[in-house]
């Protein structure tokens, strides 16, 4: 299999005292030149030989008493930079195996907030974070958080504050409640950290400590780096290490899985492995053979009646590991771009549904057409040499077969050829008193008998020495089956003082730019210029914090028609009792709709208003409430209102119940019917979501989740576009006797047991049931829900064991 894949894809503590310098000035005043001017970089304490630490969340081993403690925490949420009200004693040392961190959090035990959650869940509670700048120059790093109760969160960091929370690392941490507070104890192996080559025996890393205090709804950190300043990763406290050159590391992740499909009454067994080999501290080779990329976590239920694709994030571990080198812009990880991310690499395309040529007269189940493609294998190589970072990724899909049925009942087999994917990345980065500068290239290629797609991009990045200016830009060029396209994007941020930000975003995509063979682009044929102003204030009388923002956007197409234009004004308030109110008043200017009609003709849409407001109660309490309203107008001026209510109930640390439901009442849902014809519907929609979590322990979880969306749309008006003249849609008589009214009922239910046997070693038992059955217009919503459950299109039971072996 390997040959096929490659052929196709071408003993004592140091006496030096630990020091942790507390920032005496605001982070926004700490320039790169001042950092470089530090005369003495403290050394972390090294322990030779075995540290004899039992990782149990208690600092009772003798070695911890040899390590000096530091504090220096400042309040960063809300952004007051006041000294913390409670002591936080942190001790850090390292061995040839990794870094040990012990944190004593002084606190009245009656005020502790411990809540168990799945990994990477954001929630207000007591927790401790250590972030490490592995590059030593503020270029890339790792974030690891353990919460009281042992639930973990981790991610990678790119300069300056780009977090990728989808990454999971093999670090360990435990907590315990002790007299006078609680303790967090970490072990972070060198084998999971990409370290650049060091010129001598010494190297530098940066460290940032953070503590969240749940009952106060506050976050403290050292150094004090609130989100209201540009600088983050490059401002970590620098430390010097000696004699760190970990030996060659190799890790295996063999897996075995069994799947029973209740719809087709079939059982499938799979086995394979992933291998991660780190021949040196700055390189890693990853290989996956016969991978099982079936998700053990369902995507959200989405009803999309627009002309734009829905973006779903990656959840597969192999593609998440080492992903950061392929990040070319802040727009890759967020919806900064118009309508969603702008990215050359969207790994959800790899192994997505195959393209089948279905002949006339052949019926094929929609679930078979949309089923993911099996992968024969994938390989990835990433590394660093001096100021250069690089990465390659290749993956190969298997050929697929599905069954169809002729009108007379005869079964036929349809075949589809698998695609080959190749990605290359090269990045040059430099830092110094003048700031940070980098330039990179990335190229992608998709090879298939029906498509030949290549995309190249050059990205540049700049961070000024005074920390006030930040720029990210990229030039793009695509060639899909001989059709070439071009694009350019740029983001400029100016922060004249703490809490004040000006952001300018611009871009141009011609009408033939195509990133969606392997990347993601909401639309081409677009130019845009946006401006965003944010003012964040703390210690406001009667408030904990106040944030005001204004967003002005201007988007136009190649015909110089405004396709999206308007202004948003938002005010977010957090009160002294920790309740919060977020409100936004939005105006959308008159524009042209050039996408919904799929080329049948453009039409004008009048200006409209929107008001959005959400109130949430104190998140640290056992019961948390949420209420929201979205009062909007449809494209043609009719009313569109969505109300949302939710409750979270957490009576004990290891149990939670989250229930949320939204109801939408629309008077003018516009749906394209083909041939330049549209129908406007009066529609109602229910969207409930229920999640129940029970933790046997922090590493054994049982979760039950249900999402359902039911929509009823009754035809109301019939409209036609004028293909010869740009004007508003005109109302016309009903074109035929057939009703356009429709019903959508989509359900996803999942019951999942997960046992984390060891770091990144898991046993999953997952039952998934999904329905997508159109019901009757006059059925009750409860009936639609029942029909979706009783007539599933997905009904699977998966048992999967993945175990980590090796270094």
Written account of the structure:
The chain has 807 residues and is mainly beta. Among the domains are: 11-242, Immunoglobulin-like, CATH 2.60.40.1190; 313-488, no CATH class. The chain is 4% helix and 53% strand. It has six helices and 44 strands. The chain has a 24-stranded antiparallel beta barrel. The radius of gyration is 28 Å and the shape is globular. The two termini are 24 Å apart.
Keywords:
mainly beta, globular, Immunoglobulin-like, 807 residues, 24-stranded antiparallel barrel
Topology record:
Layout lengths: L1 H7 L23 H5 L8 E2 L15 H5 L7 E4 L10 E7 L3 E9 L20 E7 L6 E8 L4 E7 L3 E3 L7 E7 L2 E9 L12 E12 L4 E5 L14 E6 L6 E13 L4 E15 L2 E7 L27 H4 L41 E2 L2 H4 L5 E11 L2 E10 L2 E7 L4 E6 L3 E13 L2 E14 L2 E14 L4 E12 L2 E15 L2 E10 L16 E13 L4 E14 L5 E14 L4 E9 L2 E3 L9 E3 L2 E9 L6 E11 L5 E14 L2 E20 L2 E21 L2 E21 L9 E3 L9 E17 L2 E12 L8 H10 L3 E9 L2 E2 L1
Parallel strand pairs: 1-3
Antiparallel strand pairs: 2-12, 3-4, 4-10, 5-6, 5-11, 6-7, 7-8, 9-10, 11-12, 11-13, 14-15, 14-43, 14-44, 15-16, 16-18, 17-20, 18-19, 19-22, 20-21, 22-23, 23-24, 24-25, 25-26, 26-27, 27-28, 28-29, 29-30, 30-31, 31-34, 32-33, 34-35, 35-36, 36-37, 37-38, 38-39, 39-40, 39-41, 41-42, 42-43
């Amino acid at each position: 299999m390997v040959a096929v894949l490659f052929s196709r894809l071408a003993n004592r503590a140091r006496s030096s005292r630990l020091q942790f310098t507390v920032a005496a000035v605001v982070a926004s005043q700490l320039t790169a030149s001042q950092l470089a001017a530090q005369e003495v970089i403290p050394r972390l304490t090294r322990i030779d030989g075995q540290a004899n630490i039992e990782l149990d969340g208690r600092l009772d081993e003798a070695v911890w008493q040899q390590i000096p403690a530091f504090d220096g925490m400042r309040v960063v949420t809300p952004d007051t930079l006041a000294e913390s009200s409670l002591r936080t004693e942190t001790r850090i040392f390292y061995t040839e195996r990794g870094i040990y961190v012990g944190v004593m959090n002084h606190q009245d035990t009656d005020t502790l907030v411990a809540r168990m959650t799945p990994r990477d869940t954001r929630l207000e509670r007591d927790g401790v974070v250590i972030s490490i700048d592995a590059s030593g120059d503020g270029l890339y790093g790792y974030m690891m958080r353990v919460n009281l109760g042992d639930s973990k969160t981790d991610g990678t960091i790119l300069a300056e504050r780009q977090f990728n929370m989808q990454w999971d690392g093999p670090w360990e941490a435990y907590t315990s409640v002790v007299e006078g507070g609680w303790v967090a104890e970490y072990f972070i192996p060198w084998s999971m950290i990409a370290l650049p080559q060091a010129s001598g025996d010494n190297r530098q890393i940066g460290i940032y400590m953070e503590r969240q205090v749940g009952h106060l709804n506050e976050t403290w950190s050292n150094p004090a780096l609130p989100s209201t300043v540009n600088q983050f990763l490059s401002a970590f406290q620098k430390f010097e290490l000696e004699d760190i050159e970990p030996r060659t590391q190799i890790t295996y992740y063999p897996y075995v899985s069994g799947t029973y499909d209740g719809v087709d009454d079939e059982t499938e067994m799979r086995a394979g492995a992933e291998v991660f080999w780190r021949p040196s501290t700055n390189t890693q080779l990853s290989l996956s053979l016969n991978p099982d990329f079936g998700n053990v976590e369902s995507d959200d239920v989405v009803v999309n009646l627009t002309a734009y694709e829905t973006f779903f994030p990656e959840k597969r571990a192999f593609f998440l590991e080492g992903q950061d080198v392929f990040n070319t812009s802040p727009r890759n990880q967020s919806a900064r771009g118009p309508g969603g991310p702008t990215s050359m690499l969207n790994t959800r395309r790899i192994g997505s549904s195959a393209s089948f040529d279905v002949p006339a007269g052949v019926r094929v189940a929609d679930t078979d057409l949309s089923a993911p493609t099996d992968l024969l294998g994938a390989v990835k190589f990433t590394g660093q040499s001096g100021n250069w970072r690089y990465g390659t990724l290749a993956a190969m899909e298997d050929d697929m077969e599905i069954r169809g049925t002729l009108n007379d009942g005869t079964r036929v087999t349809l075949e589809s050829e698998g695609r080959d994917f190749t990605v290359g990345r090269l990045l040059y980065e430099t830092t110094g008193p003048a700031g940070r500068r980098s330039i990179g290239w990335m190229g992608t290629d998709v090879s298939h008998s029906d498509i030949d797609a290549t995309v190249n991009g050059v990205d540049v990045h700049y961070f000024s020495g005074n920390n006030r200016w930040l720029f990210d830009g990229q030039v793009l060029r695509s060639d899909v089956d001989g059709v070439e396209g071009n694009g350019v994007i740029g983001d400029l941020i100016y922060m004249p003082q703490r809490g004040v930000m000006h952001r300018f975003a611009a871009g141009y995509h011609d009408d033939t730019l195509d990133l969606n063979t392997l990347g993601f682009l909401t639309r081409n044929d677009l130019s845009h210029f946006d401006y965003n102003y944010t003012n964040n204030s703390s210690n406001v009388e009667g408030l904990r914090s106040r944030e005001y923002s204004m967003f002005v956007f201007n988007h136009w197409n190649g015909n110089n028609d405004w396709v999206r234009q308007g202004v948003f004004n938002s005010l977010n308030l957090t009160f002294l009792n920790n309740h919060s109110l977020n409100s936004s008043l939005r105006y959308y200017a008159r524009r042209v709709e050039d996408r919904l009609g799929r080329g049948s003709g453009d039409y004008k849409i009048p200006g409209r208003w929107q008001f959005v407001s959400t109130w949430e109660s104190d998140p640290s309490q056992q019961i948390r409430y949420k209420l929201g309203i979205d009062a909007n107008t449809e494209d043609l001026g009719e009313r569109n209102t969505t109300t949302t209510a939710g409750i979270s109930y957490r009576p004990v640390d290891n149990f939670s119940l989250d229930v949320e439901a939204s109801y939408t009442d629309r008077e003018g849902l516009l749906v394209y019917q083909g041939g330049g014809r549209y129908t406007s519907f009066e529609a109602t929609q229910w969207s409930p979501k229920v999640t129940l979590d029970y933790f046997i322990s922090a590493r054994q979880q049982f979760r039950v989740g249900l999402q359902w969306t039911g929509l009823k749309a009754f035809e109301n008006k019939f409209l036609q576009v004028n293909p010869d003249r740009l004007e508003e849609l005109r109302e016309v008589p009903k074109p035929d006797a057939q009703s356009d009214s429709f019903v959508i009922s989509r359900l996803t239910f999942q019951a999942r047991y997960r046992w984390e046997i060891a770091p990144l070693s898991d046993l999953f038992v997952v039952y998934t049931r999904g329905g997508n059955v159109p019901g009757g217009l006059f059925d009750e919503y409860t009936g639609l829900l029942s029909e979706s459950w009783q007539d599933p299109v997905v009904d699977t039971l998966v048992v999967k064991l993945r175990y980590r072996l090796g270094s």
